[in-house]
Design a protein that fits this description.
single chain, mainly beta, C8orf32 fold, 5 domains, six-stranded antiparallel beta sheet, six-stranded mixed beta sheet, 6 helices
């Protein structure tokens, strides 16, 4: 059963007639749906001599149970599809397939402390014409977004948050399917552009990522839609939907139909016609643009919104012109991202809120926090007391309310000073905030909000210390606020580390053109776990391996020289996008003794990105309008 921040379950069996009333699909724990794939192909001005239609089928998995009327096949990337065909089709040709799906929500309860990206996942690091992960703009942006991330999950979370926050959803672009670079430069699109940009940024960050196509239910449109999202490899495949901002988790109304290294325009209908001038019309029932009314919802189970959080103001009564903070604290039960925003009272401007949307990156048994700064207006009439209710809004949390009172009778206390004991501290190192308090500020309660938690202390002395544990490998902000109003924003920088380096490099002794050799590099780090990307460039080819290491680790690379002579080998070690170490060597390559002998570079060494198959056609996200293509050999290919 999916863990959802200790959410209580609310069981609802909903019929299709009331299904559109669901206000938040992200709370769906399980669902039962029926997909009717019906269509008609009509030939005008001739006859069909044969027809074959590939119908995409949702994937069977631990979180999706799928039943079909016809036998299923697998494409090159393991996706299911059904073939409907006839050697002597009627005109018009009708087909009908019913598919039932029972789904449960996905969650990520654990991730390995260390892992190496296996070959079957490494193919999802490759750049493509649509997913330009090697473009300098995309690589620079990915490095900037992920700099200082504490682990690969935080990298993926930051990238998804950035895409979600910096892209504008534009319904008019359904079916355009633009590239990652286009999306970055234009900052708009639909699910395809969101996912394509995220996948390019993830691959540029050394995280294998692939496309997921299928269906989602939209409360905005009250309908099922064709949709695209992503999975990223973090020792296991983890769902990421940058459009809906579901990271590490996916609700049960995300119905997976296919997983691909690249979105494909593979044919989904092929027909032979006589004569070649014959016109074909293909009409599918229940599909219009991105809308999929051919899906019926038989039942859904929802969780109640989460309430297991702390929302608190350091001070609830402020004098005009005063300030304080409100903080949100949550303990994670799994890996996910929670979006939250603190909205000020409507109809008046007595209290303003700084901070906007906040994103809590949750991990099992760890605390995440967010803080907003409040300012009471200094221009309010002095003969009024204002009460301003602030509301916590989140797609998956209950609405929390904190009332702030602005009272001209509230005392204005003298300021106090605060500093950090260690302005530079290693992650995990103990640190403290040091407070110097004038007499009116003593005997009050103070709150220190750091990224890793909230510390609270009743301060009675002129000099007080509030301890906390430093976290993260980049600059961290610490909020300090107490009763009586006012706040301090402190910042510390992580201490310098010795970094990641190569212990040794073992090279092959005898290389022959057309043969194969192996280079082994041993990597160590000043601290563990560490995220590393090791790249080997040789004979015009580059191979990259990514891993999270828990100790000294070895990486082996295949060397495939094609020409005799001296060839340069360069080994580069990166971490979080930064070059940490590099070594180069000149390797002699001998000519083969017998040119007639096989080269020994077996086909198993080739790593190609599958092109996909016609199975994708029935479940493309945000589908294009039907295209009719004429072939002189009297064959028709439809792409969907």
């Amino acid at each position: 059963m999916r863990k959802m921040l200790a959410f209580a379950l609310l069981s609802l069996v909903l019929l299709p007639a009331v299904f559109a009333q669901i206000q938040n699909p992200q709370l769906a724990l399980s669902a039962n749906v029926t997909i009717d794939e019906n269509g008609t192909v009509t030939a005008t001005g001739g006859q069909m001599r044969g027809i074959s239609i590939n119908i995409s089928v949702p994937l069977s998995s631990p979180y999706q149970k799928v039943e079909t009327q016809s036998a299923r096949r697998l494409d090159e990337e393991g996706n299911d599809y059904i073939v409907v065909s006839s050697s002597s089709p009627a005109n018009p040709f009708h087909y009908s397939e019913r598919i039932t799906v029972s789904s449960i929500a996905r969650s990520t309860d654990s991730l390995p402390d260390s892992y190496e990206v296996p070959p079957e996942a490494a193919q999802y690091l490759a750049q493509t014409s649509r997913t330009e992960s090697g473009d300098p703009q995309i690589r620079a942006l990915a490095q900037n977004i992920t700099a200082g991330a504490s682990d690969p999950f935080e990298k993926a979370a930051r990238l998804a948050v950035w895409v979600n926050s910096n892209m504008a959803y534009d319904e008019s672009m359904v079916g355009q399917e633009n590239s990652a670079l286009w999306a970055l430069q234009n900052r708009r699109g639909v699910c395809v552009e969101y996912s394509t940009l995220f996948i390019a940024l993830a691959r540029a960050s050394g995280l294998p990522a692939r496309y997921v196509t299928g269906y989602v239910y939209s409360d905005q449109f009250g309908s099922w839609l064709g949709h695209a999202w992503a999975e990223v490899y973090l020792g296991k495949w983890v769902p990421v939907d940058p459009t809906w901002l579901e990271v590490g988790a996916a609700d049960a109304l995300h119905i997976e139909a296919g997983k691909y290294s690249e979105l494909s325009d593979a044919p989904s209908l092929i027909a032979s016609v006589v004569p070649s001038s014959t016109q074909l019309e293909w009409v599918t029932s229940g599909k219009s643009g991105a809308f999929s009314s051919n899906i019926n919802t038989d039942g859904v189970q929802l969780s109640a919104p989460g309430s297991d959080y702390i929302l608190k103001a350091a001070e609830t009564t402020l004098a005009p012109g005063g300030s304080t903070i409100v903080f949100l604290s949550m303990n994670g039960t799994d890996y996910r991202v929670i979006e939250a925003e603190l909205a000020t009272c409507k109809g008046e401007s007595s209290v303003s809120v700084e901070g906007g949307r906040k994103f809590l990156v949750l991990r099992p048994n760890q605390t995440a926090t967010a803080a907003w700064v409040l300012h009471a207006s200094s221009s309010l009439p002095s003969n009024y007391i204002y009460n301003c209710p602030l509301t916590l809004n989140s797609p998956v949390l209950t609405h929390g309310v904190i009332s702030i009172t602005v009272d001209p009778r509230a005392p204005s206390l003298p300021d106090y000073s605060a500093s950090l004991e260690k302005p530079n501290a290693q992650p995990g190192e103990e640190n403290s905030a040091l407070l110097s308090l004038p007499a009116p500020r003593r005997g009050l309660r103070y709150y220190l909000v750091s990224p890793s938690g909230v510390q609270e202390k009743l301060a009675a002395s002129p000099l007080e210390r509030i301890p906390f544990v430093s976290s993260g490998s980049q600059a961290q902000e610490i909020y300090l606020a107490g009763e009586g109003g006012g706040y301090k924003l402190l910042e510390y920088q992580p201490g310098q580390q010795n970094g990641i380096f190569m212990d040794s490099l073992s090279l092959p002794q005898n290389l022959t053109a057309g043969g194969i050799g192996y280079a082994t590099v041993n990597i160590s780090s000043a601290s563990y776990p560490a995220d590393v990307d090791v790249e080997a460039s040789f004979a015009g080819e580059t191979e990259r391996k990514s891993a999270r290491i828990a100790g000294p680790s070895s990486f082996e690379f295949s060397l495939l020289p094609t020409d005799a002579g001296v060839q340069a080998l360069t080994i580069s070690v990166y971490s979080n996008g930064k070059l940490m170490d590099q070594q180069s060597a000149q390797l002699p390559v001998a000519a083969p003794q017998d040119a007639g002998q096989p080269s020994g570079t077996g086909s198993g060494n080739a790593q190609g990105a599958p092109s996909g198959s016609g199975a994708q056609g029935g479940a493309k996200p945000c589908p294009l309008a039907l295209a009719l293509i004429f072939f002189p050999l009297a064959a028709f290919v439809f792409k969907r």
